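ARCHIVE CARD
Drawer: 12
Card no.: 0347
Subject: one protein chain, sequence and derived structure
Cross-reference: see card 0346
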Amino acid sequence: MTGGERPEVPREHWDVVVVGAGPAGSSAALGALAEDPSLRVLLLDRADFPRDKSCGDGIAPQVLDALAEVGAADVVDGWRPLRDLELSRGDVTVSGPMRREVHVVPRRVLDARLVEHAVAAGAVLRRHRVSSLSTGPGAPLVSGEIGAEVVVGADGAHSLVRSVLLGGRRQPRAIAIRGYAPTPPEVAGRQVIRYGHRGQPSYAWAFDRGDGLANVGYGELLPGGGAGSAAPSRRLLLDELERLVPGAAATGTDWRGHHLPLSTWRWDQPDGAVLLAGDAAGLVNPMTGEGIYYAVATGITAGRHAARAVAAGDPAGAGARHRRAVRGMLGAHLRHTWAASRLSRSPRVVDAGIRAAGRDRHVFDTLVELGLGDGRIDARLARGLVGGLLRPTDPRFGRPAPDRPAPDPQTPRWLT
């Protein structure tokens, strides 16, 4: 319980209160109302929409698959899809078409469109900064005055709801900076990811929005603590971006930094009438920092199970329902991304993965699914990694040894 003593009677009472109206929160409202259009759903956010958020803006096809279930897959309308992806570290490069197209839509646009869908479905949107959450006894109480049968916490990386529910649990975090820059010719029509030389995973990105601008940025894993473990400065982040994507930092504007609470091998959701979704649930891909798919998928799931718990007269059972559903949907995937993120802390493994993707189209597609959606490490990817690790490399950025020349890195075997 936070925020002092709980009044005996809340000033208002709702079936479902969603804290945070980003992709996770709006999706939760849509999920609840798709399950039961008669529900009274209150959607709270401290900001007015449209508003900006620091993000890579990439919308994977799995996001649209999930949104189609609640009638909101049109949020990317008017934005040109991309198909080509470049992955590189130093001279080790693979470039080619992804199996399914992606979109790059600024969060100012995406989030506002999702909110509009939620409101059209029947949610009530209110600007409100949540100051506290009381979880018992009885129904949850938000800010000391808003009662709910079920609360969904979708309030981002620094979630108040999560802190009340789980306390100050430590988890790995990354830091990133994002801006917008004129799209250079080599980035036009594609997504570019270039790994750096600092502790892995660290990489710069440039994603063409299709309107003359590219979303550009750089991020890396934060140190775990201890002596000499200070977080990288803004200047360092921008310098690394400029080194990996020349011109991006020099021409970019609208810089925003943010922290990312990275997923681990196991995800937890306590029992009870308070649910977590998206960044507030600590669900961010530890390989890539991608979080929108997790936010939308777990938001819809939270909304649906909140509605079902209310309908069953068992709000306290919502937590167990949501936990089972998310573990069934993402449990194996989270274990695989955790393992992959641990492996990718080795530059040799990063190089091996890129080389394997250049030799085998299936490996390329599997890496994309693992980083952007709900993919898993399969036997073919594992064999490709082992093969890449056994191959002699030059210590300078894993370059193929001179006595064993490699194919042109710009022409993957599966493209020829």
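Annotation on reverse: The radius of gyration is 22 Å. Residues 1-8, 392-416 have pLDDT under 50 and may be disordered.
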